[in-house]
Every structure is written in C-alpha cells, then in structure tokens.
C-alpha cells in the first residue's frame, strides 16, 4: 500500500477541474440551481479519476533502461540512450525525468513522448563533461498517464549508475588520420639522422667471414663449439615522452577546460599518432614531486596504460619544481628522447627562473616547450576601444600578448624547440610539430 501511494501522482487536469468545481460551489451561494449541477460534475470527476487510477494499475507495466557507454570522453558530446517498453494494451503518454550527475548542474531535464501499445520507444540525448572523474546518474523517473491525464503512475529505474570520464579519446580518434601520411614512410624521402651506434639486438647466428668480430658472443661460442655472433638491426623506434606540468599555472580555464585538461587530451592524441609512427611513447607528470612516470614502450597496450594514468591527474596550488624534473629525467632517461613539455608561462621572469633547467634538458634530449596563448587577452586586443579606460586595458593586453612571443623567441635563442598555441588548437599543433620533427630528422 505504501508503494502504491508513493507511485501515485495527480495531473494538472485534475487540479484545474477541482478549481472549476470550487468556483461553481462558490457561485451556487448566489445561484442555487448550480448546486445540484456541481455535485453531478463532482461525481463524474471522481468516477473518471478512479477509472484512470484502476487503468494505470491494472496489472500491466512498463520497462525502461538507461544505456550508457563504457566511458565518457572529456570535453566531447557523449551519447546517452533511453529505452522504454510499453506492455499496456493502449496508448500512454510518458514524462521522462533523468537524474543527471551533479557535475552538469542540470536540473530541468524533461522529455515527453507517446508510448504505443505493446511497443518500444527509444530516444537519446548528449552530455558534454568538462572534468575527468566518476559521474553518478541517479534515478530514471518515468510518469505515465492515459488520455484522461487525471492521474500519473511513477516508475523508477536504474539507481546509481556510474560512468568514468576519461581524457578525450574521441579527439584522439579524430586526429588519427594525421598519422596516415604515406609520403613520410616512403623509402628515400624520409630523412634519417643517425648518431653513434644505435642498434637493437635481433638474433644469435654462426660467424661467417665478414662479420664484425666485436659482436662475437663468447658464451654462445663456448656452448656450440663454433664462433657465434650477435646480429643487430637498426633501431627505428625512438623514445618520445609527454611531460605534463601539474603546477598552479595549469589551473587556468579556457572555454570550460583547464590547461591541464587540454594538455591531457593532447597527450593522448599525440601518443596515439606516435605509436602509429612506430615510436616508443612514455609519459611523465610532475609538480612538486613526480606524480607519474611511464617508461617509453611501443606496445599497443601502452596507450591504455597512459589513459589510465592520466585519468586521476589533478593540478596543485604550488609552483612546479623543474630542478626535480631535470634530475629525474637525467636519472631515468639514458637515451636521447623527444620531450614534449606541456607548461605555461605568463611572465618573462617566470621563464627565466626555469630557463637553466630547460637548457640542461635540451643538452641531452630534444626538448619542445609547449605553452599557451591567453585567448581572452588576444580577443581584447582585437576590439576597438570606445573610451580611455578600454584603450588602457587594450594597451596592457597587447603587452601581455607581446611578452608571450618574446618568451618563445628567448627559448628558440637557446636552441629549444617552442610551440605557442591557443588551447583549443593544442592537439593538432602538437601533432604537427611532432611530424615536422620526424620529417626533418631532428630526433
């Protein structure tokens, strides 16, 4: 009985009818002929109401399901499907209220639909998350009514469904085509830069005249009683690392996403392209400490490992320690690698504090410093000032924008590759920079 009353609601038509009947009872105080007529209307309304309730609770039911993807892609439109099956033998009207996760701050979700008898209805809607993490859906509430719309019956489905929001794998798939440049892989066109003896072990074989005696494997020779040599092949896969700064400078938001989220989305897309180019990809995340380090690997599973590691990364409120970054890279990365460093500098003084460590990194590795244009300031410089105050603001904005270009020139002057980009174009520009480096044979 308690469940019955919890599921029973009344429609607007009933309240409109009750308001009209109340008005007629009031008028019957002066016009007595309305009194008996109003009681007849009241009786008819009660009969219709009980008929409506009995019809809704006649033993038939509806089934509904919220179909979620395995994971959501951050900063992209993600599809959510609602499926409703009507087991009643007549047409129903349904109002669907889905309890969307609190992160979206959406409290007015309502969809109305007609349910045909013994039929299934499906519809979809899209959600765009702006933060990584766990998103919990609440109840899927469905209120059904007959054509009378005097009473409603409430159904509740799918309590507490959880979906995880990962870095933008949708963006990664969209940019996958950038790895399909066939010209780069054609023999005789791609530039190859060889430094030293970069060879990978392939197999052990018997010595034949002309083999390098320096490659003799003495242990294998002792076992086989014949001279055995190690055979090597040219090392093709180069180590490529995405280095992400998680300090306070990466908290700045643009169009709903923080700079850190832009960097994370770019790292995933860039790593996918690098794997397609047969390079080994890795990742390092740092702030006041080293938060995560994934050694470079060319395995297909490496992309999933990077995605899982990026899932829980958050910014802090302190400045990052670039001296710690330098010492950890010097200790753990013995081979010359491509380092794509995602960070941000707003003032020349901030760059100069970190410049000695950046120069030290660039001595042993190919370093690309990626930092961001302040697009809000750029917009301000493009607006014609209307008064003296706006003119002063525009002058300051132009100075900030000019400082960004000076910082890029300063890094280039010290032989450090630089990429200054708007946040929304970060992934495309980063991949293009990587492809440029591969084409020029700098790594």
CATH fold type of the largest domain:
Rossmann fold
| Overall geometry | elongated
Lateral strand order in the biggest sheet: 18-17-14-19-20-21
* Fraction of residues in H or I helices: 25-40%
Average residue-wise pLDDT: 88
Number of discrete helical segments: 13
User: In this structure, how is the largest beta sheet organized?
Assistant: 6 strands, mixed
Helix/strand structural class: alpha/beta
Poorly predicted regions are 182-198
The structural domain count equals 3
Return Rg in Å.
Answer: 33 Å
Descriptive report:
With 443 residues, the chain is α/β, with parallel strands linked by helices. It has 3 domains: 1-166, Immunoglobulin-like (Sandwich), CATH 2.60.40; 169-188 and 236-440, von Willebrand factor, type A domain (Rossmann fold); 199-234, no CATH class. It has helices at residues 2-7, 12-27, 33-56, 169-174, 182-185, 218-224, 259-276, 302-311, 322-332, 348-364, 375-381, 388-413, 426-440, and strands spanning 8-10, 62-67, 71-73, 78-86, 92-98, 111-115, 119-127, 133-137, 140-145, 151-157, 161-166, 199-206, 228-234, 239-245, 253-254, 257-258, 280-286, 290-297, 338-342, 366-372, 417-421. The strands form 6 sheets. Strands 18-17-14-19-20-21 form a 6-stranded mixed beta sheet, with helices on both faces. Strand 9 (140-145) and strand 10 (151-157) form a beta hairpin. It starts with a helix and ends with a helix. The relative contact order is 0.10. Residues 182-198 have low confidence and may be disordered.
């Amino acid at each position: 009985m308690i469940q019955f009353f919890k599921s029973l609601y009344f429609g607007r038509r009933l309240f409109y009818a009750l308001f009209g009947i109340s008005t007629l009872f009031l008028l019957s105080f002066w016009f007595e002929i309305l009194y008996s007529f109003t009681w007849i209307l009241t009786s008819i309304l009660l009969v219709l109401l009980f008929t409506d309730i009995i019809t809704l609770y006649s033993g038939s039911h509806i089934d509904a399901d919220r179909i979620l993807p395995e994971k959501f892609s951050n900063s992209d439109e993600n599809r959510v499907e609602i499926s409703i099956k009507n087991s009643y033998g007549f047409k129903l009207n349904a109002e669907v209220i889905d309890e969307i996760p609190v992160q979206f701050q959406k409290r007015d979700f309502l969809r109305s639909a007609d349910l045909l008898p013994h039929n299934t209805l499906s519809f979809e809607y899209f959600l765009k998350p702006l933060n990584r993490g766990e998103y919990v859906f609440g109840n899927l509430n469905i209120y059904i009514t007959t054509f009378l719309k005097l009473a409603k019956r409430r159904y509740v489905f799918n309590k507490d469904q959880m979906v995880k929001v990962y870095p933008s794998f949708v963006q990664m798939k969209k940019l996958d085509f950038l790895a399909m440049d066939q010209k780069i892989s054609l023999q005789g066109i791609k530039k190859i830069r060889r430094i030293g003896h970069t060879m990978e072990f392939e197999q052990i074989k018997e010595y034949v005249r002309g083999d390098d005696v320096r490659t003799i494997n003495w242990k294998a020779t002792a076992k086989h009683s014949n001279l055995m040599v190690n055979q090597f092949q040219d090392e093709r896969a180069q180590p490529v690392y995405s280095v992400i700064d998680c300090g306070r400078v990466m908290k700045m938001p643009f169009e709903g996403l923080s700079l850190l989220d832009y960097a994370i989305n770019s790292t995933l897309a860039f790593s996918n392209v690098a794997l397609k180019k047969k390079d080994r990809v890795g990742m390092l995340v740092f702030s006041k400490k080293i938060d995560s380090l994934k050694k470079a690997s060319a395995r297909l599973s490496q992309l999933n490992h990077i995605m899982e590691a990026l899932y829980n990364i958050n910014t802090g409120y302190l400045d990052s320690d670039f001296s710690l970054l330098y010492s950890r890279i010097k200790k753990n990365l013995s081979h010359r690698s491509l380092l794509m460093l995602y960070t941000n500098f707003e003032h020349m003084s901030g760059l100069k504090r970190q410049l000695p460590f950046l120069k030290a990194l660039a001595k042993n590795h190919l370093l690309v410093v990626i930092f961001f244009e302040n697009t809000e300031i750029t917009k301000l410089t493009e607006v014609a000032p209307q008064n003296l105050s706006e003119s002063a603001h525009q002058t300051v904005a132009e100075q900030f924008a000019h400082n960004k270009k000076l910082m890029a020139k300063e890094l280039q002057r010290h032989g450090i590759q630089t990429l200054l980009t708007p946040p929304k174009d970060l992934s495309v520009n980063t991949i293009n920079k990587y492809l440029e480096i591969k084409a020029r044979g700098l790594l």
